Amino acid sequence: MKIAIVCYPTFGGSGVVATELGLALSRRGHEVHFITYKQPVRLETISSHIRFHEVNVPEYPLFHYQPYELALSSKLVNVVKNYGIEVLHVHYAIPHAYAGYMAKKMLEEEGVYIPMVTTLHGTDITLVGNHPFYKPAVTFSINNSDIVTSVSESLKEDTLKFFDIRKKIEVIPNFIDVSKFKQKIFTDCQRELMAHDDERIITHVSNFRKVKRVEDVVRIFFEIQKNVKARLMMVGEGPERENAEKLVRELDITDRVLFLGQSNEIDKILCFSDLFLLPSETESFGLAALEAMVQSVPVISSNTGGLPEVNVNDFSGFLHEVGDINGMAKSAVFILQDISVLNKFKEQAREAAERFDINQIVPMYEELYEKALIQA
Questions:
Q1: How far is the C-alpha of 331 from the C-alpha of 311, rounded, in Å?
Q2: Going by fewer Cβ within 10 Å, which terminus of the chain is more open, N or C?
């Protein structure tokens, strides 16, 4: 099957999931074409089954904001015609589903009919898409997709709540390639770069936006380190990093907190980690939690959005109400204080993550593609 995937090429969850899906589909013999404004961060190699098509947006003084949707829809038309694309899979409702619909209409003028699958990932619905400026376009794009999927039951419910949707929404969760983590390839001596042998390593990975509540991460760690010798690894960049760094100085724990910035070595950092903190205001799925769990790292998280569908309370970690800093800290200490308890939660975190193995999820998408082709 020839599949075109439209996504954001950045470190964010939707781009990562879309890229990993395309790579998995290519390994299963499909021809996959990525279409976006730069090469996705996880698309490290191009093969005979994988193509990348860059969307270039010419700059004209007439436009205050350059029309990416126009350039994208035109690029989609060209790629579909030149490469015989059979299915268009767009990730994130705006602007991708909107541009995809325009491309479909342009192609139909030339007698070419291609089904479009739209996958909703989170902020395209709960934050950006629900803005009054965008809501009509998002509603229109979803309703005019041939098949719509969401990454969690929670996101599906939010979509039906916030928008006037007439389409059935299929839930296909995010996934992880469990086989990549069968064996830890990093040595103990490398762990010493981050912490001493008698210290626990606690990690947070995010884009440091307000919704991630990174100051809560710092406050939770502050309570933990009163009871357990530990270091906190803060991985990522974003607008809330400065506030988090300021709070670390105010609490006088700069010697125990390391801000690592954007990193391509997250797997290595998680491999050494003992606990993952994710106290977000909301998470449509919680891919960062899943990536920690597959590395046998238990998770302390809020119980919002799709997180309860990923992090199993009192098994892979613990769930708490948003803002419950003391409760999250107590649960963390419970896991970290006793090595036997920690090892038990590590094993259970890995077991919970295996439910989302890529080999179980990708066939669900293949089945939807086949369904879309029949309906086209």
A1: 14
A2: C
